[in-house]
What does this fold into?
Amino acid sequence: MAFFSIVIAAMTLQSAYSQISIPGVSSRFETNQMIEDIIDAESAPIRRNEQRIEDLEKERDAWNRLSRDMSALQDAANTLYSFRNPFLQRIASSTDSSVLTASAVREAPESVSSLEVLQTASADVFRSASLPEDFRVPGGRYTFGIGDSEISVPFEGGSITEFVASVNRRASQIVEVRSVRDTRSSRILIFEGQITGAANRLNFADDAETLALETNTIRPRATEADRDIRLARETVTLEDGETGSAGLSDGTVVLEPTSSAFIDTEPRVVLEEGLVLSFEISVENLGREEFREPVEPRGPTVPELGETELDGVRVPFASSVFDLPEWIRPEPPAVIDDLNILTLLDGSQDFALPPLEDTDGFMTISFPVGEALAGLTGIEVSNRSTFRRVHLQNIRVYDPDSVGDFEPVLALETARDARLRIDGIEVNRDTNDIDDLIEGVTLSLQDTGIARLRVEPDAEAIKNAIIEFLALYNQIMVETNILTRTSREIVSQISWFTDEEAAEAEERLGLMQGDSTLNQLRSRLQTIMMNPYETRLGSELRILQQIGVSSNASGPGAGVDTRQLRGYLEMNEDVLDAAIAQNHRAIRDLFGFDTDRDGIIDAGAAFEVHNYVRGFTQTGGIITTRTQSIDRRISDANTQIGRDSERLERREAQLRREFAQMESAVDSMEDMRRRLEGLNTNQNR
It folds into this structure.
């Protein structure tokens, strides 16, 4: 009976452990699954912590996303009221861009100006005669100059192409040289000065002068007519007027109202076609206040004659009696506005220059006198105006095409100043890019003609800044709604989401449901955007809705749109455009206003948004605090996972040892069973 009991026990154990298997041991027993099941059951805390970490990381990512959006909103709000606000930006627009274009800086005052471009500035452009294709430029020192600048180019000698490349490589800031093939077998050289203005004539020296003469680019000047007209006591005759005197001081003729002068130019200046008369003149409008109205004279003062005494009787003298003529107030001088100031004389022939205009300081006038007279013997200067003062100086006759002792044989372009009238005042500049006529504005002259220039606020920049601010505000509203609510309608209502963005948004739905900080953020921003603010227009402009910004800017609809209840703002562009055109300064106040006039912005929608959001985004602010807390919780969870993992490793090792011992016992019992079976077989024999 004992034998059969052992056999039955062994068979029972074999049956019980027939599914046990130990790695590395070839047997019928399988233990892996049993160990895995035990470890899996005991690893539930690790899985809970891993899920917790995943949720915390999503929450941290959401806060980081909010931080980026809120920082962008903070910057956009600051832009609307800080020193870089778009309300101070200016644009300059021309009614004819083919005549002139312009740009303006922020400091430019708003203005409208009338401009007439009489002449654009240019630089000298000379051409040579036709040269053979194989023309060789000899070696030497080639010097080119403009104004006070001069550059010398050493050249070893070579072809036209090599000469052009050498000069352009070393002297391009003064002159640019080109060669143009005028026939299949010849070329011409073109020398183009790089600085505009009448004073910036292109000249040649050293071997450049020799080359220019040999290639018939320049020639010795043929005229001796160039001459400065002296203004001295010997050459100027002055004549006082009824209300003012004439004078001469340091080479400048000064004519008070109604005075005149004659300038003797003998010996006679012989004039040829192309010669120019230039002079500097100032025409100052004095205004009527310079002249005092005459007052009635008081007449003579006669002392009292006293009295005399005769035989004790005092007899007073009779008072003196004078019959003075009645004073008649003189008629005020006639107001004369006559700007025909200069007349050129050549014997009995006169030529009156065109009328001038009032100036702001001295301006240079040039006139092609060679086309008007054959000679010049004198100049009459008459200030007939009642309320103007005239200064005249630096009169000269010259050939504008001459360069020192030479003149170009064929000038494709001659260096000259730009001439233009701005609001009726003629001015000269040596460049087509003029930045000193209108404060904060740079003019770029293109061609002759008339244009009106308007400097005004950059309405597009203002509008774009407001649009960006509203878009970022709406983005914060969208994100807080997604994070704190679970309705899929919130995502489907965001029309600008792509399919991918919508899918990502649905994953974040309700991630922070019930978070009081986010709910407070959304509510506070809504309140700020709806509050009234002080502006220079008072009640006429106090809220954003008055410039076309509201939760229903497109107008009332047939029903209630739930999007209007979620804090999103819309913009009516037509209303905003009209408001910017009429009241851009008051709109600036709406976003940022200095209520106590201390020079510091302390109110306005953008100001309030910036200050409130800063509490979230600044270092040590709400978002930093929240993300640091999340990081600590993630770290704690990872630490706990590490501990649990170590515990499970030990537990697994323990289970493998115990199962190995069990298998060893089973193997021993199996061996005993085989022996017993063998013993039983032998006994039966």
Notes: Residues 309 and 315 are 6 Å apart (CA to CA).
